[in-house]
Amino acid sequence: MNNSFRFQTVPTLIVEFGAARRIGALLRERYPSHQRLALVTDGFLHKSGLLAPALADFEANGWGVTIIDNVIADPTEGVVLEAASIAAGADSEIVVGLGGGSSMDVAKLVAVLRASERQALTDMYGVNKIVGSRVPLIQVPTTAGTGSEVTAVSIVTVGESKKMGVVAPQLVADLAILDAELTLGLPAAATAATGIDAMVHAIEAYTSARLKNPLSDMLAMKALQLLDANLLRACRDGQDRRAREAMLLGATLAGQAFANAPVAAVHALAYPIGGIYHVPHGLSNALVLPHVMRFNAEVAAPLYAQLAGAILSDVSGSVEARAQMLIEHLERMIEATGIPKTLREVGIERSGLDRMAKDAMLQQRLLINNPKPMTEVDALEVYIAAF
Fold first, then answer.
1. pLDDT at position 339, please?
2. Cβ atoms of residues 267 and 204 within 8 Å
3. Residue 156 belongs to what H/E stretch?
4. Where are the domains of the chain?
């Protein structure tokens, strides 16, 4: 293994149950001379009342808040540009993303567009294409899944079904606030899909063919242990505070891991499922995870065996046998959560698989990280196995 590596993450993490109730004070301490902030979220969270304690504390600490709640799942260019335009109209000095991965992804781009209105969003797609800086950015996740609060990636849906990534160091937030209180009561299906998404981040970071390093390995392993031990508990009881805290921390650690040792074929094959059929991202990952792992096992078995040893109590036998135990354990866990297990269950027809395999090949940014090279024929075989 090459000893040189680069590791980058959010400079400050606040992990505190109930922290959102004093977010106005936390930001006032940090930004004493700023007045106006844009809060990027979604309409459901805004209406649900979940934001009320945070909004009350912003007001108590003299913040002028512009709420931008136009975010939808798989946000489009239109959503991003509208949010940026509202923030510009309000002359917002700080951007706070509060919500799931989509809200945090939009917040990242709003923070950049606020500072560098000369560069078009379309010129930012790809790796390290952002030329300007950004205004201060704070991220507050309400699901334990995407890890977007600590990554340098924002995913935008372009046209009908294509997903484009903006990847640049400017997208790393200044502060991430992990308040598990915001995740209490998240429905079981959403808990399962986002939790498995986080597990995929840990597994793919640990087996990444590029940029895998000792820090990302340590974070991925710890993340998988936390997520594996708490996912079913959090699904069974939405109010289980300890399980929720463990899930949120696990998702963030997995986010820090894959932000530095990038994800691979599971994500590449999940994107067409989300893009074409609008299946939520976490569920898309869960549908292909075991099948991609079986494909990779020929090369990745030693690493899968190490992960099996970290989360299973009775691991023995050859490297291949231990890798197989990990895959079967994950399949049983996905089944136990009750979320769909096959592509057909989410409304995908057999005739759509060829187009999906073709689309998956567009995700070379991700496929180059896969431990075993994957062709369009391979991708189609994985989809057929998942069908």
1. 95
2. yes
3. strand 153-158
4. 12-183, 188-386
Token look-up 């400050």 returns 12
- One-character DSSP codes across 8-21: ---SEEEE-TTGGG
Distance CA 294, CA 301 (A): 9
Q: Which two tokens stand for residue 88?
A: 């510009």
Is residue 1 pLDDT above 60, yes or no? no
Helix or strand holding residue 325 (H, E): helix 319-337
d(CA 279, CA 277): 6
- The CATH architecture of the domain made up of 12-183 is 3-Layer(aba) Sandwich (3.40)
Reading the block at residue 247, the tokens are 């899930």
Is 220 within 8 Å of 261 (Cβ atoms)?
yes
Burial profile 156-189: b = 16 or more Cβ within 10 angstroms, e = fewer: bbeeebebbbbbbebbbbbbbbbbbbbbbebebb
Of 376, 217, 234, 178, the C-alpha closest to 307 is 217
Report the range out of 38-52, 113-127, 154-168 with the highest average pLDDT.
38-52
Structure tokens at 111: 């923070």
Q: Mean of the pLDDT values across residues 184-189?
A: 94
> Is it the case that residue 213 has pLDDT exceeding 70?
yes
Tell me, what amino acid is at 310?
A
- Hey, what's the torsion of the CAs at 17, 255, 97, 279, to 10 degrees? -110
Spatial distance between the Cα atoms of 141 and 183, rounded to a whole number of angstroms: 8
Say which amino acid occupies 271.
Y
Pair 326, 307: CB distance under 8 Å: yes
Q: So what's the architecture of 188-386 in CATH?
A: Up-down Bundle (1.20)
Q: In what order do the strands lie in the sheet with 94-99?
A: 12-15, 175-178, 137-141, 94-99, 36-42, 64-71
The predicted-structure confidence for 163-176, as pLDDT tens digits, reads as follows 889 999 999 999 99
- 327: amino acid identity, one letter: I
Q: Which of 68, 66, 53, 260 is nearest to 153 (CA)?
A: 260
